[in-house]
Write a structure and sequence with these properties.
6-stranded parallel beta sheet, binds riboflavin, Rossmann fold, alpha/beta, 12 strands, about 45% helix
Amino acid sequence: MANKSVFYSILIIILIAFTLSGCTKEKSKTTEVSDTYSVAVFVPGVIAGSPTYEMMANGAQKAIDEADNGSIKIIEGGYNQGEWLEKITVLASSKEYDLIVSTNPAMPAICDEVSKQFPDQKFFLLDGFLEGNKSIYTFRYNQMEQGFLSGYFAGLVTSSKMDGANSDLKIGLIAGQEYPDMMQAILPGFSTGAEYANSSITVDFRVVGNWYDAEKARSLAVSMYNSGVDIILTIAGGANQGVITAGRNMGKYVLMYDVSSYDDAPGVIIGSTVIRQERAAYEKIKLAITDRMEFGTAEIATVKGGWVTFDNKHPLYLKNIPQEIQKRESTIINQIASGDITLKMPVNQE
Ligand code: RBF
């Protein structure tokens, strides 16, 4: 009899303990997030060959992997820009996603449009700018600074006695297409940086017309190199490969943007800026999961904040670049970081 009551007491204690632990779990769950946090990552193009897209996808995946209850779907939207609005509309209308994540300066206008139809849908847009829509948070980089770091370096190289440099003082920029960020921030930043190194430099700017045609980019690069350009900054997604091929074949130089790329073509790719897009995607999605993303606001990430820089530590850079140029490039990075040199982004932006 005594044994039986002991048995029942233990059983009751166990049951109470179970119920309590269940309750606390339920409670903490509701205070953090209600159920699964679901993210759709929309790649406006394809991931391969486009560093900003790859970094966004990696950062988002990492944030979701670390969440207890996250799910992620990565969708490649393809190169037909006319289809992006409809594709984003389909994602929003499914009501399956707590957050739609994307990146590039054209996405805020598209998502703003979709948001009118689906006001409950939240968006996190990297590399784009829009203020005042309560459903959208944007995070872009100071591309004037990034362009400047690149242009200053190109200016030093073209003014140097390096093997691939001639005396023409011509540098180049090849872009996938013309868009406001390119025309109002990247290209002006690049030209201003070059001028800061040497006021006699001219910039040859060409456009591929899309983000994949490597053959077209190669022929543009060949014609630029033939006309006396000795170093080209390429911002053309998958088409960048054509510029690298031309540089390699002609003993000329290439600069890359957004991700440190020296290993892809040692001695040809001699300079590279870097943006911390993977970190941005990761950290900001973590904020969104815990309900701390400031929708309606727009952030601009800078050299000072550690989001934009030039990779001047890579072994191939240290090996291939003359000491004097290294010294001057480092000084400029520090001057931008400290605020001695200020390069503001234009205010507008779509
Ligand atoms: N950059 C890429 O690397 N790959 C792309 O496919 C690509 N597509 C773009 C499409 C549009 C409509 C716009 C406005 C920009 C695109 N960019 C692309 C440029 C990208 O957003 C960014 O400016 C550059 O990668 C430099 O950081």
